Structures are given as structure tokens and as C-alpha cells.
Amino acid sequence: MTMKKTSFILLGSIVTVIVAFAPAVNPELEIGKAIPSASVKMMDVSGKEVALNDLKEEKGLLVIFSCNTCPYVKLSEVRIKEVASIAKRNKIGVVLINSNEAQRDDEDSFDEMKKYAKVQAYDFSYVLDKNSQVADAFGATRTPHVFLFDSKGLVYRGAIDDNIKDAKDAKELYLKDALIAVGSGKAVKVNSTKSVGCSIKRLD
Predict the structure, then answer these.
(1) Which of 79, 80, 115, 161 places its Cα 20 to 30 Å from the Cα of 86?
(2) What angle do CA 40, 192, 199 make, to 5 degrees?
């Protein structure tokens, strides 16, 4: 057997092992589906345990998978607070979920989450997703990764807008438009876009 052929066999074996031990993540939640893991209790930075069912308001719930560390989250902080304000005005609950389980001993620990939320002056829930179980149920892969539910099910998933790097240059305000539509009882025109950001740091 040649050296080149041996190398390909070894590489194939390594890839097989990596795939076999990759974290199990569901496909991205389908439009129309109900909130998954809605009764799972998560620790909020306020010190209270809450579930997504507890945070849902009259017209729905805005879920954003986020963290303390991702540069794309930091670029989106002003936008996150803006859409949270729009959601509240439209009787839609808001929650940020930190699913970076592989960084709990570092900058995404619960203590660091509390500090980060205080610096950002969050006036909505910011919760710790233990073992990334809620992110897995949603099929969430990025930070930020947005899921908007009305009273019946998922109506929008994906990005906040079409320019993660610069809000001033965004031309399509996907989430803002979806929130206003839900608040007014209208159909969401664009219900799925690609989330752009850092990968959620799951345990192997």
C-alpha cells in the first residue's frame, strides 16, 4: 500500500471519529412549530429560574441565542436592545439564551453573564442554557441566532437584519419587520434568513 493511499485511509478514519462524537443538534426549528423545551427551567441573571413558557407574553416570544464573548453579538448589542423594546411594545416577551457550555469556566460563566447583563443594562431575561439542551432543541447554531414566536408558533428565524457588521448599512430589517407584523396581527413576509455569527460553543 502506498504512503498516499495510507494517508487517505487515516484521514477518513479521523473524519469518521469526529463525526461520531460531534454534539447532536437538531435541524433548525421549522416555521410554524411550537416553542421547544418550553418548560425547561433555566437560571436567569436575576437569580430566578425561569422557563420559556414563563416569559411568553400575550402575542408571543422573542428568543435570541447570545453570549458575552462573540464579536458579532457585541456589534449587535444596540440592535438587540432596540428589537427588545419593539417586542415589549407589541406585547411579545424577550429572552437572551447563553448556550456556550464549553466556556462556562471562562468568559461565559454565570458570574460573567451577570456582569455582562449589568454593563449592557438589559431589562429582559438573560438565561444560562445548561448543556446547551435548549439550543439543541431549537437547532440553534450561532450567536446571535433569532427565533420569533407568535401565539401559535414560530414565524421568523435567522438574522436581525442583512448587515451584521454595520447596522447603519442594513437595508432589510427582518426582525423589526417581523415583530411589527406579529404585534399588528399580520403575516410575516420574510420568515427565514441565515443567521451570521459565532458558533455556539457546545461540549464535545
Answers:
(1) 115
(2) 60
49-91 pLDDT, tens per residue?
Answer: 999 999 999 999 999 999 999 999 999 999 999 999 999 999 9
Using the predicted structure, report yes or no on whether residue 18 has a pLDDT greater than 50.
no
Cell numbers that stand for 76 in this block: 449587535
In terms of Cα–Cα distance, which of 135, 77, 134, 68 is closest to 106?
Answer: 68
Q: How many residues does the chain have?
A: 204
Gap between the Cα atoms of 150 and 93, Å rounded: 10
**What domains can you pick out in the chain, each with its CATH number?**
24-199 (3.40.30.10)
**How would you write the chain as a 3-class SS string?**
CCHHHHHHHHHHHHHHHHHHCCCCCCCCCCCCCCCCCCCCCEEECCCCEECHHHHCECCEEEEEEECCCCHHHHHHHHHHHHHHHHHHHCCEEEEEEECCHHHCCCCCCHHHHHHHHHHHCCCCEEEECHHHHHHHHHCCCEECEEEEECCCCEEEEECCCCCCCCHHHCCCCHHHHHHHHHHCCCCCCCCECCCCCEECCCCC
**Residue with grid cell 436575576, as numbered in its chain:** 46
Residue 25 is predicted with a pLDDT of 66
pLDDT given at position 17: 34
